[in-house]
Amino acid sequence: MAGRVEIRKSFHQSLDEVSHDIVRLAGMVSESLGKATEALLDGDLRVAEEIIAGEVTLDALTLDIEERCYQLLTLQQPMATDLRAVVTAARLAAEIQRSGGLVVNIMKAARRLYGVELDPRLRGLIERLGEQVHRLFRLSIDAYVERDDSLAAAIDDMDDTVDDLHVDFIQTIFEAHGEGVTALKVAVQLALVGRFYERIGDHAVNVGERVQYLVTGWLPEHDAAARQRVRETDGGAGGATSDAGGDGAGSSPSSRSEPA
Amino acid sequence: MGSPLVVVTVVLLVVALATTVVASVASYRRLRVRLESEVSSGPEQAHEPEGLREAEAARARLAGALEAVSQGVVVRDEAGREVFRNQAALAYVRGRHGEALVEQAIQEQFAALAEGGALRRTLDLYGPPRRVLLLSAVTLGDGPHPAGALVLVDDVSERRRLEAVRRDFVTNITHELKTPVGALGLLADTISIEDDAEVVRRLAARMTEEALRVGRIIDDLLDLSRIEAEEAPRHEPVPVHEVVSEAVERVRPLAQRRGIQVDTSDVVRSHAVRGDRRQLMSAVANLLENACKYSEEGSPVELRSRVEGEMVEVEVRDQGIGIPGRDLERVFERFYRVDRARSRETGGTGLGLAIVRHVATNHKGEVRVTSREGEGSVFTLRLPSAFPSGGPVPSGRVVVPVEVESR
Asked: Per-residue pLDDT tens for B347-379?
């Protein structure tokens, strides 16, 4: 009996360390994301190089976290909440790593944009995009640390602002290029930068979804799967009566799926 | 009888005995001393727990002292185990975002110290809030057997900021003053060896321009030092709309030249502030001048006033080029330039916003700015109202509190 308690404790300790390292990984990305926008606008190549060089550390830590997650899965065979915590950790590490990779991409673009004087409107929009995405990223990590599923769910809505800014940004690039203010090469680089920011926002939304899954067991894929089932039964049996119950479960996400 | 051999034997025997006695006495004395000391140490042994208590009290005092310092303190023993961490450093253990990196840096500092590596490290955190942390590692105890190690985390953000302000001030004032004076010298040199009257006329025009520039800087510097010296300005009620219309009058030539519409329709006639009319006019005029200068030709500039509690806010809003985020909190520094190359075209002295800030603080108010590049800037001057709550009811607009029904 005492032995079992010990094992559980060590499992939770390891899990704790894993989630602590995820927060650390996110800390690295959050810092580089904030600095990246400034470095891009100021043409600060020193910071750009620093962030590009830091990718190795990010990747190493991600790999380490993932391996520890797999170890926990195979050696401890966790159930229910514990299982979700481990699966979420592995997924989050990947999402955060991708965000870090996109920050590196922004810095590579900054290298190519070095010395280019940008239209103030474009600079303002880059600043806005950077701030908004940074905020989103930080909030998604806050949601993870606090296991706050309503905050996690709100991130998807907040991402709409990022998407709107992205559309504005692309529009402004077209205008600036049309007026002959911005060269084609520069315009392409800028469009890429906008895309990178927008993608980081999407990863933050994914982190939010994973946190919801961690807390409630809900995944957006469940909705899609339910729809798919409805469609199949519709086509096969010509009636969706059996799936009405499945759909009804949608109103109480926590009861929907508890991984065994 | 009386054999000499017997006598010698007796003497030897006595000597031997004496020696033994002396030795035994000495050993007795030693024993006594020891016993006495042991007896007297008896009560001392009874005091031992008190010694422990004292040690405990001393430890608590030291720990309390370390708690009281604002820096983060982490102590490890000689085996590398963490034995103490004060409240400030405790915050880093479960930190997130940038904070999570501080804990990592602390651990790395201990590791570096153990390997005889770097003892100081600066950590630049983007935040927000933006911070610069200085981590120092120290070996505790001396000699070949250290008693442990300590890492100190010091927030040096404010110190770094002031250093930057001071450093840039010297660079900027040198640039601002030396450039026109240097130009004057060169122009004068060229004129003295130039025969072509037309060229001389052109060079002379340039000299006048540069001289005017130096003159403006000196005027502003004098203005600034006068405002600085006058710590308590006059406290008369000054109607905001009068200050505004005087300021508008002052920048009218500039606004007309650039086709800028200055809209003052949202300046409420009944709003008044308490202060020195001349200083206030100078502050508003400076804000207005910047708004006109950094706007595109033909774009609007708006002024408005509103009451916020006991303060009146005067807002100057433009749709100009805006200010980059990193310069935003520095634009009020003397001679600070967002873009030095551009500053010569716009012809400012680099002192305008410094004057505005001084006027605001002199009046126990403040000036704030929000800006976005490519969208424009909003400068807000907050000044104490001449009619704080309980004063005369402002004529013109009457504000009736309306309760909003919540559904």
From this structure: 678 888 999 999 999 899 999 999 999 899 999
Please, which pLDDT band fits residue A236 given cuts at 50, 70 and 90? Answer: low
Q: How many CB atoms lie within 10 A of CB B263?
A: 13
What are the tens digits of pLDDT across the range B93-106? Answer: 888 888 889 988 89
Min distance A164 CA to chain B CA atoms (Å): 17
B99 CA to centre of own chain: 20
Chain B positions touching chain A (beta carbons under 8 Å) = 95-101, 103-104, 124-128, 321-322, 324-326, 372-375
* Alpha helix segments (H runs only) across chain A: 2-42, 45-53, 55-76, 80-112, 120-146, 149-178, 184-216, 220-237, 241-248, 253-256
Alpha carbon of B99: minimum distance to chain A alpha carbons (Å): 7
**Which CATH number is B163-384 given?**
3.30.565.10
Tell me, which fold does domain A2-226 have in CATH? Methane Monooxygenase Hydroxylase; Chain G, domain 1 (1.20.58)
**Counts of helices then strands in chain B (DSSP H, E):** 9, 12
Domain B65-155 CATH class label? alpha beta
In A, which residues are within 8 Å of B98 by CB distance?
Answer: 27, 30-31
Contacts of B175 (CB under 8 A, 6+ apart): B335, B340
Contact residues, chain A, for B322 at CB < 8 Å:
120, 124
Domain ranges of chain B: 65-155, 163-384
Residues whose CB is less than 8 angstroms from the CB of residue B242 and which lie 6 or more positions away in sequence, other chains included: B277
Q: Look at B373 and A141 and tell me if their CB atoms are within 8 Å.
A: no
| Gap between the Cα atoms of B12 and B34, Å rounded | 32
Measure CB to CB from residue B126 to each of A34, A141, A145 and give the nearest one.
A34
State pTM to two decimals.
0.74
Q: Report the 10 Å Cβ neighbour count for B300.
A: 14
pLDDT in the model for residue A99: 96
CA B397, CA B394: separation in Å to the nearest integer? 7
Q: What is the ipTM of this complex?
A: 0.74
Backbone angles phi, psi at B140, to 5 degrees: -95, 145
* Pair type for strands B301-308 and B262-266: parallel
* Tokens, residue A238: 């010509």
Both tokens assigned to B310: 């006991």
**Where are the alpha helices (H) located in B69-91, listed in sequence order?**
87-90
